[in-house]
Structures are given as C-alpha cells and as structure tokens.
Specification:
The protein is an alpha/beta fold and about 300 residues long. The protein is built from 13 helices and 9 strands. A hairpin with a 5-residue loop joins strand 6 and strand 7. Helix 7 crosses helix 10. The chain is globular. It binds S-adenosylmethionine (SAM). The site of S-adenosylmethionine has 22 residues, from helix 2.
C-alpha cells in the first residue's frame, strides 16, 4: 500500500519559490513525496526534513543534500543549530498524520479497525489514547471533544465514557464504540467516529500546541524573502495559521502604521487558502479538507 500521496504538490513547489542553492525545511516528511519534489528542484541546496514517527524514517532519501531529523518539529530551531544552519529559504509543513497512519491497524488511528487505541505519532511519547480516555476527567474530555472534535454533544459523550470506565478500562476501538452506543446514530455513525477520533488524536499529539511552537520558530529562522507554506486539515489549525500569518504572533497584538494599516512581518502569497483541484480530489479523497496558506517574510 502507498505510504502517502503528497497533497497539492505543484502548488507547494510553486509557492515555496525554490532557489536551486537554497536551504529548505520539510517539517513533516511522511512518505517523502514533497521532500523528493523539493530535492528535484535543488542544485547545491539542502533539505532538512523532520518526522517524529519512526516509520517515516524508512522512507529517508539517499541524497547527500538531504538531512533527516527524527524529532518533533517543535524543536526546529535547536536542530537547525545542531546542523550549523541559522536561516533558511523556505519551510513546508503538511500537518497531521499520513495515510500510512490510518492504514496501519496497530497504530490505532482508524475507527475502521477494532484495534488498541494508541494514536501516538511518536511511539516513544507517554500519552496515548488509552491514557486520555481512561484518565481525563469529565471536564477535560468534554473540552477536547468540543474544541478539537467540534462535537455538539461533547458533554454527553464524555459522561458516557466516564460511566463506562467505572467497570471497564477502555483500551480498544470496540470498547469505545460500546461506551457511546447510546448516542451513536444507527446510520452515518462514521461521522461521529471520525470527529471523536480526530479530537483524541489532536490531544494525544498536542497538535495545536506544537504548531504554535513551530510557527514561532519558523518566523525566526526564515530569511527575509523566504517562504512559509502550511497545509492544514482542521478549522482550528487553519485559524491559528491564518491569524499568525496576519500578525506574526499569537498574542492578538497587531502593530499598525501611521495610517492604521496592520504591520505584518509577512506578505500573503495566497490571499485565500488554496484547496485541492477537482482533478486531485478524484485521485485522492484525503485531500478534501486540505487548505494551503503561503506567506513570504518581509520584515
Ligand atoms: C500529512 S503527513 C506528511 C506527508 C508528506 N508531506 C508526504 O509527502 O508524504 C504528516 C507527517 O508529519 C509527521 N508529523 C506530524 N506532526 C509532527 C510533528 N509535530 N513533528 C514531527 N513530525 C510530525 C507525521 O508523523 C506524518 O508522517
């Protein structure tokens, strides 16, 4: 089975405006589709790719211009320093998990299998879906289902889980479904499952937290004129990226010039987020919720 099909490949390459001798970062290597395409456009340039998942390491590209960092991209700055790099010409982040994660039963990312609930991208990290489901209290569960899953009945679902685990530990997909069966619609149950799984996965991998840490460093290591391209799959992620691109921070503070115009460190390359074309969607349905935003650092 294919590891992962890169999404909006041409749009990313064009948006990064690759200089053949530049230094580029692929923060989310996965199957290496975007990385390989970037390398193909480089001459003496360099590409540093991050992935926290050991499985992605198997896809490493054998090329002397390529460096693989098996770590979370929240350590972007540290690892660039370690490799003697201060500033880069472009950064790509294609967030979330790869098709490989959904297809591998034992990784516990997919509701299609009755498997152990895991959902860690980094299998060395301590927090797995099992800990979240069995140790988080009612309020914490409600918060993640509401915020990350956008589930209107978050409190009810959290209550059913807390109730179920009084007698049974929830360790498998099947047990989770059993716990919430009372509110699961007879048809279209997958809509609920996909939202629920997304919420748990985002919590397990602290996806919004690490994204903020990453963006704060990306802005620092990017050269003036350098490009930053981010593909998101969730409205909360997209909102974070959108607001950061507008102001260059998360504090909500905006600097304004004499005339009241917002002074941003970025110039928007994509006025509106790009989405996969109908043609791409026909070949790859996983591109359906992807949004690509690109900026250039100007200050
Ligand atoms: C959507 S896939 C990227 C696919 C890739 N662009 C390709 O062409 O195959 C996201 C990848 O990034 C990794 N990843 C997600 N969040 C990460 C993080 N915070 N640090 C490092 N790797 C991360 C995942 O393990 C996964 O392999």
């Amino acid at each position: 089975m294919e590891y992962h099909v890169p999404i909006m490949l041409n749009e990313c390459l064009e948006g990064l405006n690759i200089k053949p001798n530049g230094i580029y970062i692929d923060a989310t290597f996965g199957g290496g589709g975007h990385s390989q395409a970037i390398l193909n456009q480089l001459d003496k340039g360099k590409l540093i790719a991050f992935d926290q998942d050991a499985d992605a390491m198997e896809n490493r590209i054998n090329d002397e211009r390529f460096i693989f960092v098996h770590h979370n991209f929240k350590y972007l700055k540290n690892f660039l320093k370690y490799h003697g790099i201060q500033q880069v010409d472009g950064i790509l982040a294609d967030l979330g998990v790869s098709s490989h994660h959904f297809d591998e039963k034992e990784r516990g990312f997919s509701y299609r299998f009755d498997s152990k609930l895991d959902m860690r991208m980094n299998t060395q990290s301590e927090l797995s879906a099992i800990e979240v489901l069995n140790n988080y209290d009612l309020n914490e569960l409600t918060r993640i289902f509401k915020e990350f899953g956008e589930l209107s009945n978050a409190y009810k679902i959290a209550g059913l889980i807390v109730n179920y685990r009084k007698n049974n530990k929830i360790t498998t997909t099947g047990q989770l479904f059993e716990a919430i069966k009372e509110i699961t619609p007879a048809n279209n149950e997958y809509k609920l499952y996909s939202k629920l799984f997304q919420a748990i996965r985002m919590e397990v991998n602290k996806e919004l937290e690490v994204l903020q840490l990453f963006l704060n460093q990306a802005i620092n290591v990017l050269k003036i004129g350098g490009r930053l391209a981010v593909i998101t799959f969730h409205s909360l992620e997209d909102r974070l990226v959108k607001n950061f691109f507008k102001t260059g921070n998360f504090s909500g503070e905006v600097e304004k010039d004499f005339y009241g115009n917002i002074l941003s460190p970025f110039k928007m390359i994509t006025k509106k987020p790009l989405e996969a074309s109908a043609d791409e969607l026909k070949k790859n349905s996983r591109a359906a919720s992807a949004k690509l935003r690109i900026v250039e650092k100007i200050l």
